[in-house]
Please model this.
Amino acid sequence: MHNLLKAEEGYIIPATFMLSSGGFRISLDRKEPGSDIDFVSHAHTDHLAAVKHSEWVLASSQTADLIAGSYGLKPRVPDGAPVPPGLKLLGAGHMLGSRQLYVDACDSGESVVYTGDFQMQDSRVSEKIEIPSSDIAILDSTYPDPGVHFGDRSEVERDIQRWASAISRSGIVLFRAYAMGKSQELISILNEAGMAPVVSERIAAVCSVYKKHGAKLDYLSTGSEECDSELRGNFIGITESGADALPVALGVVHAKHVFTAVVTGFAKMFRFDTDMQFPLSDHADFSQSVDYINATGARKVFTYGNSAELFAANLRSSGIDARPFTEYQCTPSI
Model:
């Protein structure tokens, strides 16, 4: 168990980040030395460190398909044992296939839930979050600051629809969004208003996995024959975040004005070099994280990820006894 240190209230804190249960050492969205099972909550790149080297990946079938289709990696799962007894994968609401890891009965008798990235509001293209009653809650957070608050998603969606419909009469509309998750959400929003966007081949490849798992998405992929006629007039497009030179190139090639917008939760915090920005997030904000904790009824709360220290401090300021997670050992402390 590495170099264990005794800690108060049964917390065992070695210099690693795993959850132990039923004789298994389970890493959480990263690869840890000595792990038996590597849980992957969803298919975004910052949560895939374990996939290439793991002998036992625990993830949803949708996540496995997205990893294979987008990165050419096939997660390894032992035959006949995809989910060990006592472990459950619950919807996280973040994107297609996103899951929480739930341990319903540790050796100590306590239940534990780990969220990864999660979202409390309903998403158009992912499963609704499931919130279990749990003794221990381990939360990841992209938005640990109480000052960041996301309002009703439906209002942001309507703003996107109205702006895209109006501005496309005057030129090309180009949205920037993450290729996996946010782009599919954006396509669904535009489809509802009768708009079928042109998307990059990379986004289209991700969309094909979403469609395989039941998502209804109407779009045109660049390079396809159907796309050629669409590109002759004003059109609405979606490209990956970071394609900064594309608007200029499109304007030159098509001799039209190109209007740009970014769709991301970070629009609440930063100013982007675009004509418009829409704060549509796939993550829970701070107040939603507090709602999640209260809904679980957790007696102990751990924070996880890059913002663990700040998140824990802000939760404590809100009256929740939280601390950064290193390891919770599902056996009585020694």
User: Anything to note?
Assistant: The first strand starts at residue 18 and ends at 21. The chain has two domains: 8-147+283-329, 153-278. The domain at 8-147+283-329 is CATH 3.60.15.10 (Metallo-beta-lactamase; Chain A). The CA atoms of residues 65 and 145 lie 33 Å apart.
